């Protein structure tokens, strides 16, 4: 079987890139007879270029420097000569973006967040482009993969896609680096944490992440527990500066730490040093930080909304993401109840048994195999 993998739209280190990296690795390890042709460009993340499997081959496209327009040109024009040369059985796109005129697409749509939070897109053109991309997948993809039953319901409701054309395949906890005590202490020192107990958030600052309410919840909590801190890890995005403003106005800059971008090692060190993950998003298609935290034995406080109960299972303490006082009470419960923390840690480990990248690979291979041997095309 020959599978081309469209990695053109992926340039960062967020959930979709993590999904793609782990899926490629899992398929390569479990199915050595499946040829994987990775379609890349010069700005593709380094980890896509470093697989060492004989059946994984890299192919690079190039266009003039035209910003985001370059991706569109590569994907809708430049990719076709390469596909004619490679003659793959299928083109697998781990993100929603796919070439319109190739008739053997399998595409992954992780969520419909931009439909629910339109303010996260900078202009009308981007909104139209995203919606058009989803409708293209509806019309042209042989199969749409999504990562939770929640996201499947969203696609059915918002885009009226036939449920039979959508398959749910869960993600899993990413492989995280081992961190020495030296790195642990160095990281805590770098962010001026010392021996201070703290709660931890990792992710971006988009409105769907609910950081302003989470910060308000921490402010309420810290009125009675002033010795605690809230560490917010992830790139600081000036487009979504409300969390910074909330901290400033609340007068808690000494207790809320925005780290900016952190390395994988620093992220693991910050997880392991925390009292718990505090991750009460309004909207998640899956929620990888929940599984990351559980895999490291760190208790989880998360939201009762969107996909998060589906993913976290019984291994989390749930809060109403619209109620700052309710979230503050969950922070207090973590601080006061040693037994609760131990139970959440144990149930978190148990919850992880539901997820593995090997299972993800098996489910994807089953879909690929069925489509190839049925001769399906659009």
TrEMBL record:
The Glycosyl transferase family domain, residue ranges: 193-348
UniProt cross-references to SUPFAM superfamilies, sorted A to Z: UDP-Glycosyltransferase/glycogen phosphorylase
Tagged with keyword ATP-binding: no
Residues of the Glycosyltransferase subfamily 4-like N-terminal domain: 15-170
UniProt entry keywords in alphabetical sequence: Transferase
Lineage: superkingdom: Bacteria
Family matches, as Gene3D superfamilies: Glycogen Phosphorylase B
PANTHER family: GLYCOSYLTRANSFERASE WBBK-RELATED
UniProt-recorded name of the protein: Glycosyltransferase family 1 protein
Origin species: candidate division CPR3 bacterium
Lineage: Bacteria, Bacteria division CPR3
């Amino acid at each position: 079987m020959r599978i081309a993998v469209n990695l053109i739209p992926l340039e960062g280190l967020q959930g979709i890139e993590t999904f793609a990296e782990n899926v490629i690795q899992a398929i390569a390890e479990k199915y050595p007879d499946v040829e994987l042709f990775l379609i890349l460009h010069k700005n593709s993340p380094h980890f896509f270029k470093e697989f060492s499997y004989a059946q994984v081959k890299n192919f690079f496209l190039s266009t003039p420097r035209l910003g985001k327009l370059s991706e569109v040109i590569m994907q809708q024009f430049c990719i076709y000569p390469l596909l004619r040369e490679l003659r793959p059985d299928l083109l697998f796109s781990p993100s929603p973006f796919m070439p319109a005129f190739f008739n053997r697409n399998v595409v992954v749509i992780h969520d419909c967040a931009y439909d629910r939070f339109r303010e996260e897109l900078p202009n009308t053109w981007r909104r139209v482009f995203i919606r058009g991309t989803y409708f293209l997948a509806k019309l042209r993809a042989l199969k749409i993969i999504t990562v939770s039953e929640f996201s499947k319901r969203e696609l059915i409701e918002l885009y009226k896609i036939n449920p039979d054309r959508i398959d749910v395949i869960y993600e899993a906890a990413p492989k995280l680096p081992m961190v020495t005590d030296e790195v642990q202490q160095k990281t805590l020192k770098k962010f001026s944490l010392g021996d201070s107990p703290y709660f931890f958030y990792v992710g971006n600052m988009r409105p769907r992440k609910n950081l302003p309410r989470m910060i308000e919840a921490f402010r309420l909590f810290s009125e009675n527990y002033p010795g605690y801190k809230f560490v917010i890890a992830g790139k600081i995005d000036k487009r979504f500066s409300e969390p910074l403003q909330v901290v400033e106005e609340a007068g808690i800059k000494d207790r809320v730490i925005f780290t900016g971008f952190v390395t994988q090692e620093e992220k693991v060190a910050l997880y392991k040093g925390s009292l718990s993950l505090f991750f009460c998003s309004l909207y998640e298609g899956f929620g990888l930080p929940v599984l990351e935290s559980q895999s490291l034995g760190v208790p989880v406080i998360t939201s009762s909304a969107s996909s998060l109960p589906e993913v976290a299972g019984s291994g989390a303490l749930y809060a109403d993401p619209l109620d700052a006082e309710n979230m503050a009470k969950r922070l207090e419960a973590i601080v006061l109840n040693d037994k609760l923390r131990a139970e959440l840690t144990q149930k978190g480990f148990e919850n992880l048994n539901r997820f593995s990248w090997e299972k993800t690979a098996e489910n994807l291979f089953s879909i690929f195999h069925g489509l190839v041997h049925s001769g399906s095309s659009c």
